[in-house]
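User: I've been trying to design a sequence by hand for this structure and keep getting stuck. Would you show me what you'd pick, starting by listing the structure so we're on the same page?

Assistant: Good idea, let's start from the same input. This is the structure you sent:
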């Protein structure tokens, strides 16, 4: 991963930059702006780190549509494209697609622009006071700078409450009050006297008058375009092997299936989960059917749970640390020189489908999307009313701020993409009537019409389209869980929780004493950091006493963030 941090001095106050930056980072300077950066070789031709006496530009990440932009503007490299677009349109970055972020400064206007992508998985963090504005793609760089310069920062208990209830942030907060994470589709405009946080992209949920058959065609054409952008980027760099996730569900399957249908070969599938689970059996069967290589990492030993400090260092405590499960260890073991992007199917179920089962749009609700209901909490009305509908609320928060926040960790190994989060494809789906998308009706119809063999194979995704059938299936699952508990009580089965799941947290906790001991010892060792925060202390005590393993892991996420950012050891 590339690292960069930019300082915009609003006056002549002097700071210590040398202590933790100069020895590792290259430096660019333009007027009052200093940019420190460290680059890797991956996808370097997509990126720009450039300055003159009058301009400074950073464009980081991957532009999936760079070849399209080169053709459109008849230009040959990313710098020329960037400068041309910047001259024509101050919001030039709205035309970019992919995991990108950047900064632009013009000395003539004495104005700095900082931007992230439309889905927020290329993060931008910022700090601002009367003396200095700081922006970076790595929150830890900002924290380290504040620490080195003895600049105070404080623990945000509201962010902790978000983490303990939803498992992710609901706004720009981080665990540090003074540092914010830029909202997806937003940009910052900063001068010596003005600070603006503006939107340049927001998805529209206005339904189009379209037939069901035309909706299927629109989804297929849009998805194939998105797959092409993702897999062609590997080819642009001469990379022959495509790295792609494979699970037992439908989303990663469709990424792989359509890629193979479009002629992309040499696909290496990676998968992780509980050994002997349906998830593993189905994933390996689909990979075998497609003729892909298959690499699996079993999670029976739950080693990822013990990696809390490293994962918090990567995701900053912005979402529950165990969400990525085995991906970190598996990705770290691969040869980065052999592959380009990591291709996933993230957010497929809700982009083509929806977050609810209603046939029309409804307003956001305080009860939706939570990972734990142990603590009573309702977001304020102003936050909820800022979203047009539940779909927008859930897409922005559960989708962008939670699910694809795994990219914060993944980017330390590979740039990660999913055709389902291509902004153009998302917009196509958002305009399709909810009555088609609800209960995955459209999703399954698309698969059955265009890729019937993919739909005929077993999946962990239910095909249910009727509410009564969904209710009956839910009842059957509850009965099976109850029956297992009864059998456990009478001594017929060893564990009351089933292992037949991709990530059976309760089963792991129940069957592994070492895991239970680790969770308890981590709590004991870090709970002293809670002393100044009485309300958060009570919340975490309640979470740790819960019978749900997920509640305990949500609590550990907050404790891990406190350890990283509010203990001397965590800053070393």
């Amino acid at each position: 991963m590339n690292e960069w941090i930019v300082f915009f001095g609003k006056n002549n106050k002097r700071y210590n930059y040398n202590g933790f930056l100069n020895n590792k980072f290259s430096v660019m300077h333009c007027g009052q702006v200093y940019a420190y950066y460290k680059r890797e070789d991956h996808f370097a031709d997509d990126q720009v780190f450039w300055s003159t006496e009058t301009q400074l530009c950073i464009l980081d990440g991957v532009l999936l549509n760079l070849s399209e932009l080169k053709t459109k503007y008849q230009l040959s490299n990313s710098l020329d494209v960037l400068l041309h677009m910047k001259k024509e349109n101050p919001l030039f970055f709205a035309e970019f697609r992919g995991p990108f972020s950047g900064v632009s400064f013009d000395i003539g206007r004495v104005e700095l622009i900082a931007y992230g992508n439309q889905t927020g998985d290329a993060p931008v963090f910022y700090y601002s006071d009367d003396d200095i504005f700081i922006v970076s793609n790595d929150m830890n760089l900002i924290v380290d700078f504040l620490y080195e310069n003895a600049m105070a920062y404080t623990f945000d208990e509201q962010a902790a409450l978000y983490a303990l209830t939803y498992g992710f942030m609901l706004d720009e907060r981080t665990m540090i009050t003074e540092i914010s994470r830029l909202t997806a589709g937003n940009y910052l405009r900063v001068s010596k006297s003005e600070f603006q946080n503006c939107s340049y992209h927001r998805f529209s949920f206005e339904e189009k008058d379209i037939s069901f058959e035309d909706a299927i065609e629109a989804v297929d054409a849009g998805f194939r375009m998105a797959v092409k952008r993702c897999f062609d980027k590997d080819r642009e760099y001469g990379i022959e092997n495509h790295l792609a996730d494979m699970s037992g569900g439908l989303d990663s399957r469709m990424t792989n299936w359509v890629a193979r249908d479009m002629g992309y070969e040499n696909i290496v599938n990676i998968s992780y989960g509980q050994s002997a689970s349906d998830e593993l059996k189905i994933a390996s069967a689909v990979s075998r059917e497609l003729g892909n290589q298959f690499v699996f990492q079993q999670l029976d030993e739950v080693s990822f749970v013990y990696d809390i400090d490293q994962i918090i260092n990567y995701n900053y405590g912005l979402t529950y640390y165990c969400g990525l499960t085995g991906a970190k260890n598996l990705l770290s073991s691969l040869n980065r020189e052999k592959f380009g992007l990591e291709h996933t199917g993230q957010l497929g179920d809700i982009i083509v489908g929806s977050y609810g089962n209603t046939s029309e749009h409804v307003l956001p609700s305080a009860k939706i999307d939570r990972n734990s209901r142990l603590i009573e909490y309702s977001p304020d009305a102003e936050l909820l009313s800022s979203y047009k509908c539940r779909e927008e609320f859930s897409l922005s928060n559960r989708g962008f701020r939670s699910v694809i926040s795994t990219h914060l960790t993944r980017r330390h190994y590979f740039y990660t993409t999913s055709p389902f989060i291509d902004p153009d494809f998302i917009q196509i789906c958002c305009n399709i009537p909810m009555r088609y998308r609800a209960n995955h009706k459209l999703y399954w119809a698309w698969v059955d019409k265009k890729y019937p063999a993919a739909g005929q194979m077993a999946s962990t995704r239910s095909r249910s389209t009727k509410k009564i059938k969904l209710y009956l299936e839910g009842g059957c699952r509850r009965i099976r869980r109850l029956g297992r508990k009864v059998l456990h009580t009478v001594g017929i089965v060893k564990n009351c929780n089933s292992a037949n799941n991709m990530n059976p947290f309760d089963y792991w906790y129940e069957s592994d004493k070492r895991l239970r001991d680790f969770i308890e010892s981590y709590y004991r060792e870090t709970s002293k950091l809670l002393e100044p925060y009485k309300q958060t202390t009570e919340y975490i005590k309640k979470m740790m006493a819960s019978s749900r393993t997920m509640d305990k892991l949500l609590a550990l996420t907050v404790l891990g963030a406190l350890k990283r950012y509010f203990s001397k050891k965590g800053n070393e």
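That's my pick for every position. To get oriented when you compare it with your attempt: The chain has 24 helices and 17 strands. The two ends are 21 Å apart (CA to CA).
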